[in-house]
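User: Before I run my own analysis I want an independent prediction to cross-check against. Here's the chain; please return only the structure tokens and, at the end, one sentence I can use as a sanity check.
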Amino acid sequence: MTTTTRRKVGIAGAIVGAASAGVAGLALAKRLAVGRIRLRPDSEASEPFGELRGRERTHTTSDGIDLHVQIDGPEDAPLTIVLCHGYCLNLESWHYQRRDLREDYRLVLWDQRSHGRSQRAAPEDSTIDRLGDDLAEVLERFVPGPCVLVGHSMGGMTIMALADRHPELFGDKIRAVSLMATSAGKLAELTLGLPAMVSKAVHKIAPGTISLLGKRGSFVDKTRHAGSDIAFLITRFVGFGDSKNVSPTLVDFAESMIRATPTEVFANFYPALMDHDKLSALHVLDPVPTAILVGDKDWLTPPEHGRAMAEALPRASFTEVADTSHLIQLERPAVINEALRDLIKEI
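Assistant: Structure tokens:
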């Protein structure tokens, strides 16, 4: 081996060694950071996340998808609360609402198609309008009397699609609506806190990148567990406004729901969320009491989207919750549950 060759090999080895050391150093720093977070006092350490159960049912939709449904609370309650979860979550995301409201109200919780324990749908059937039709079928089968609809994130969009496609249900059947951390449209214009040029570039490449991930979903899902510490930190930072004080157990619970959602499902619904535009359907909600809630630090469905909905519904209440991000019903359950009880008083 010549001196020049040895020099090149030595330089290459040094670069690879430095890069490996850098990656190892970042991994160690990540583990130490997560470790320190988990050592802090945790008020929710004993909370039975994922352990609450109702009466389990299955509904097969008109296009052949089996939906997992749970009914909780007294069957003879005069009012049913129907809880519609968000993108990449499942019905367990309503843990605190189920825990605190099940004694007084009949609850219907359901996993939207392709989420939780519901059956996977084809990409072409992964649309917000189809979710609205699913909700109409759930109401017809499991809600014999008046009800209140509650939707978080994509669940709020599901309610808007229901309003667009089944307006006759609002007033007699549906007596009130709560929309949390959601949007009537223009999600494709979000800056996500990035500079305008960077945000534009991200939105330009995101559809193709997410589509590619979806096509290789099985492979991606096999590797997601390896990034659990990173996922924990991202969930903590993006999902919770008061990330320094949020319970590590709660973050783990939220992250586990997201990680349990297959990458293909994430990819299949992404275009539907970006194309979602139901601002013109909001007037259907005008006859019923409506409460709009959003966290002031929500990057995914920011406060201006909540304000736009409130402007379209002048009789609706609008609440911007301080130091709160997208997982508002998990981060501020006392605020949310009080808001729901206040909404019910307006019926």
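Sanity check: The chain has a mean pLDDT of 85.
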